[in-house]
Amino acid sequence: MPERSAGILPYRRRSDEVEVFIGHMGGPYWAKKDARGWSIVKGLVDEGESELEAARREFAEETGHPFPEPADARGSGALDLLGEFKQPSGKRVTVFVAEVDELPPLDGGSFFELEWPPRSGRVQSFPEIDRLEWFDVEAAAEKLVAGQLPVLDALRARLAE
Predict the structure, then answer these.
(1) CA separation for the pair 146, 86 (Å, rounded)
(2) Which of 26, 103, 108, 147 could join 130 in a cystine, given CB atoms 3.0 to 4.6 angstroms apart?
């Protein structure tokens, strides 16, 4: 069975543009990559956990702060299911979107360990996400890993309705 992930793609409207909030992947492989080195904040769904619960948990773990609760059922920050997207690896990613005005900057977040340099015997700790930024949708399309581009297409289609 393919792995399941879930994430949140916050967006905001600025003049005539829509901006999305994405994270630059951490670690030595991604350190010098800008184009195709960014991702929706997401992670694996644990057994017995809903996709929404996983998306909220992963956002908090990777950014260092929880995703804001909406003031009311349809207020700023209300999470809506955008869809499920199959990645080239076969993994399925469920993405939720929410319109927000602002989000706090990266504050710690989670880390992973990796032997680096390879075959050195030295294990180092790296952040899962090393930067979070707002980009207009066109710029985000240049930055996101290629497998996540259909998410931007789905967001564009949703906002055009």
Answers:
(1) 12
(2) 26
